[in-house]
């Protein structure tokens, strides 16, 4: 009697549990799609496939352009970055915790159901999750009709004052780029910082990674020469300096930021040399300088510059790199968001001072996803000091005179930034 009963109980235990019910997705009136939900892992956490969610909402999913180790999901006007095995997501630049980490299964990525039912609707881009009916709906705000305006009482006409004949009518302003902040009234840059400061100077590339090569210059040599001059210029202005490399050696991109953090740096200055896109018309004639801070790229050119500089990771080995775990990437990015405004202000000052000494044109302050900037938990900028593919730029940035001038200008910009930070508070560092 006991044996058959035990067998019956075991058979019942072996029966599969009821699978989770799918979610109904309504991306438009009259359109209904089913989004399967699956229990995965020992905790039977609820997941949906990222590609199916994107398909249901008419979005896309794939590797992030500026960080291929991340998965980028674009749905309902939102950009969501996910790191498999890390319980965080970056939604429109804001890092939010997840109930469990996304899971990569071959080419497929499974995301926690919480992202669908809670995170996306709270982002406020026209998504609503109905818990009772298990429905994810899109909606559009409907404006209410205005109340009818009462017919005004007949009254005497109001005299119209004619504008003077001499008053010109302003013409519509032509669209033009946002100008850089006006220079301060101070006629000379600050010579010394009053407080005790530490700035991290990073010479791009090094060792087997030569960087760009053109017009007879190697990027790694130019960046090291300018970094050494910048070291001396900052010290002469009373600023302490930490160099990520002081000789021709390879330092992993992630380790450069970690050095800055370990040495308690206040600012991170990474020096690089640009290269013209071969597809540009008359590419060899393109010259000038630009300064970047860390943020999503606004143009294809900026993305290409970041992609080229990020290629340095191919030279890194287990001996030279501690690795870039996705969780660390997102947490570091979360810290960088706190310094984005300050980084932009520092970049503006660097551009302003370089304009005084550089023979080429200023291409302004730009933003892109440079990996070398991600890990530095402080205001950080990357300076492209010139185009090595242009003969005139290459001669200037490779010369002792040019390197001293560039280093002096960057040092002056740095000291002005630090001086303003002293006046406005260490946490602000503004350039008001």
UniProtKB/TrEMBL annotation:
Region annotated Disordered, chain positions: 141-194
Protein name per Swiss-Prot or TrEMBL: N-acetylmuramoyl-L-alanine amidase
Q: Which residues cross the membrane?
A: none
Q: Which domain of life is it from?
A: Bacteria
Q: Which GO terms describe its cellular component?
A: outer membrane-bounded periplasmic space
- InterPro entries tied to this protein: Mao_N_sf (IPR036582), MurNAc-LAA_cat (IPR002508), N-acetylmuramoyl_amidase_3 (IPR050695)
What molecular functions are annotated in GO for this chain? N-acetylmuramoyl-L-alanine amidase activity
Keywords for the protein's UniProt record, in alphabetical order: Hydrolase
Bias (Low complexity) occurs at: 163-188
Enzyme Commission numbers on file: 3.5.1.28
Provide the species name: Gemmatirosa kalamazoonensis
Question: Which positions fall inside the MurNAc-LAA domain?
Answer: 257-415
- Pfam families for the chain: Amidase_3
């Amino acid at each position: 009697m006991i044996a058959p009963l035990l067998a019956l109980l075991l058979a019942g235990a072996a029966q599969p549990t009821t699978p989770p019910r799918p979610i109904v997705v309504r991306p438009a009136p009259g359109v209904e799609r089913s989004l399967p939900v699956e229990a995965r892992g020992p905790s039977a956490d609820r997941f949906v496939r990222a590609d199916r969610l994107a398909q249901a909402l008419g979005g896309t999913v794939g590797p992030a352009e500026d960080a291929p180790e991340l998965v980028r999901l674009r749905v309902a006007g939102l950009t969501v970055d996910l790191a498999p095995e890390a319980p965080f997501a970056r939604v429109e630049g804001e890092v939010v915790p997840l109930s469990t980490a996304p899971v990569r299964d071959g080419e497929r990525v499974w995301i926690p159901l919480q992202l669908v039912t809670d995170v996306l609707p709270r982002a406020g881009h026209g998504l609503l999750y109905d818990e009772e009916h298990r429905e994810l709906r899109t909606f559009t705000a409907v404006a209410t009709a205005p109340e009818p305006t009462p017919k005004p009482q007949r009254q005497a006409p109001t005299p119209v004052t004619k504008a003077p004949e001499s008053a010109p009518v302003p013409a519509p302003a032509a669209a033009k780029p946002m100008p850089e902040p006006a220079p301060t009234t101070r006629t000379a840059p600050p010579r010394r910082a009053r407080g005790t400061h530490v700035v991290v100077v990073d010479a791009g590339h090094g060792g087997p990674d030569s960087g760009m090569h053109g017009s007879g210059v190697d990027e790694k040599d130019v960046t090291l020469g300018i970094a050494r001059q910048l070291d001396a210029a900052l010290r002469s202005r009373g600023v302490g300096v930490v160099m990520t490399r002081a000789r021709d050696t390879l330092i992993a991109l992630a380790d450069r930021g970690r050095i800055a953090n370990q040495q308690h740096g206040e600012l991170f200055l990474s020096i690089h040399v640009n290269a013209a896109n071969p597809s540009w018309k008359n590419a060899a004639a393109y010259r000038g300088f630009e300064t970047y801070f860390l943020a999503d790229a606004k143009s294809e050119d900026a993305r290409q510059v970041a992609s080229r500089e990020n290629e340095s990771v191919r030279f890194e080995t287990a001996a030279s790199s501690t690795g870039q775990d996705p969780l660390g990437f997102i947490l570091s990015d979360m810290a960088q968001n706190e310094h984005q405004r300050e980084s932009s202000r520092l970049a503006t000052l660097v551009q302003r001072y370089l304009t005084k000494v550089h023979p080429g044109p200023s291409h302004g302050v730009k933003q892109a996803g440079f990996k070398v900037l991600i890990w530095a938990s402080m205001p950080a900028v990357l300076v492209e000091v010139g185009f090595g593919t242009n003969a005139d730029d290459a001669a200037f940035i490779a010369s002792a005179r040019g390197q001293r001038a560039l280093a002096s200008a960057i040092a002056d910009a740095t000291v002005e930034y630090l001086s303003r930070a002293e006046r406005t508070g260490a946490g602000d560092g503004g350039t008001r």
